[in-house]
Design brief:
Strand order of the largest sheet: 2-1-3-5-6-4
Largest sheet: 6 strands, mixed
CATH superfamily of the largest domain: NAD(P)-binding Rossmann-like Domain
Number of domains: 2
CATH architecture of the largest domain: 3-Layer(aba) Sandwich
Bound molecules: NADP nicotinamide-adenine-dinucleotide phosphate
Structural class: alpha/beta
CATH class of the largest domain: Alpha Beta
Shape: globular
Order of helices and strands: EHEHEEHEEHHEHEHEHEEHEHH
Radius of gyration: 19 Å
Strand content: 15-25%
Helix content: 25-40%
Number of helices: 11
Length: about 290
């Protein structure tokens, strides 16, 4: 990838810890080149103890904006001057815009989830679905589903069932949604939960590199051809869960489209321009295959 930097090159980036396996620099720097924008995106490995100082530094350096990833998405809200309505309901920020030292937090994961699931809207609305996970990504999934897709029931499954219970009460308070059923993550049991679900979402980190052989459930006869399985994990894109779903005829959706569409919204917030998502998506797929 060719890059050029000038005196006035505008800085964007990512704050997280660890950030070794991020694809965000590739996505944004390819998009900046395609749109011929004088911007650069850099990753910054910032542990929690340095978050406040890093934010001061970002403002001092005049950064245009940045992404936030694990473990700062929830903690960072306290340092924002403004938080968008979506990010405030979800309780997590993944994108920050710096306007002359005033920081505004957004949650663009919503955009990624929405664009990934939109082609299946009629299948989801009014049907039962399962969401596995109760972290920041699960919050964005649940918000998007309740707000835009209106499923009849959400089975909320998490390794630590108490966190699923907390999330259930949280979304009742925030969005008055009361059609949750919570379950502890106990692998052989999930087949029974999944069998009633039109959509199954993995919003945990299970299956992610380097533990790519792991899966949230027993993978034998877990899915049917009428189901949609969406795995937020994007590294590797083809997780064991998605391979099993596809082998049983289900529609298997990987986390790459979400990744590109959440980035597209951040890109728009920083530059005011539309990201050429199809070209960026192809570049990302090529990079992963290499
Ligand atoms: P997080 O806040 O740390 O939450 C992690 C979740 O995974 C929790 O529910 C946790 O359960 C569960 N978990 C972790 N290890 C587990 C294990 N060994 N067995 C069972 N459950 C386990 O992380 P997050 O921000 O929500 O991210 C979750 C995943 O989504 C990550 O893989 C991330 O890369 C992916 N993601 C993808 C995109 C995209 O654009 N495609 C965007 C955002 C996130 P406990 O509550 O029991 O700890």
């Amino acid at each position: 990838m060719k890059n050029s930097y000038h005196l006035n090159t505008k800085l964007t980036g990512l704050l997280g810890h660890p950030i070794k396996h991020t694809f965000s620099p590739l996505i944004h720097n390819v998009a900046f080149q395609l749109k011929q924008l004088d911007y650069i995106f850099l990753p910054f490995d910032v542990p929690s103890s340095n978050l406040k100082a890093a934010l001061k530094g970002m403002i001092a350096l005049g950064i245009k904006g940045f992404n936030i990833t694990i473990p700062h998405k929830e903690n960072i809200t306290q340092f924002m001057n403004n938080v968008s309505e979506e990010a405030s309901i979800i309780g997590a920020v993944n994108t920050v815009v710096n306007d002359m030292g005033k920081l505004t937090g957004y949650n663009t994961d919503v955009n990624g989830i929405y664009e990934t699931l939109l082609p299946f809207k009629d299948d989801i609305t009014g049907n039962e679905i399962s969401v596995v996970g109760a972290g920041g990504a699960a919050r964005a999934v649940i918000y998007t589903l309740i707000r835009y897709f209106k499923p009849s029931v959400i089975y909320l499954i998490n390794r630590t069932e108490q966190r699923a219970e907390t999330l259930k009460n949280y979304f009742y308070d925030k969005m008055k949604y009361d059609s949750f059923k919570t379950r502890e993550l106990f692998p052989p049991d999930l087949i029974d939960v999944f069998k009633n679900s039109k959509l199954i979402v993995n919003a945990t980190s299970v299956g992610m590199f380097p533990d790519s052989d792991d899966a949230i459930t027993n993978l034998n006869n877990s899915f049917t051809k009428d189901q949609i399985v969406f795995d937020l994990v994007y590294n590797p894109p083809q997780t064991q869960l998605l391979k099993a779903a596809a082998a049983e005829g289900a529609i298997a959706l990987d986390g790459l489209k979400m990744l590109v569409y959440q980035a597209a919204k951040s890109f728009e917030l920083w530059t005011g321009e539309e990201m050429p998502v199809e070209q960026v998506y192809k570049a990302l797929q090529l990079y992963i295959k290499e």
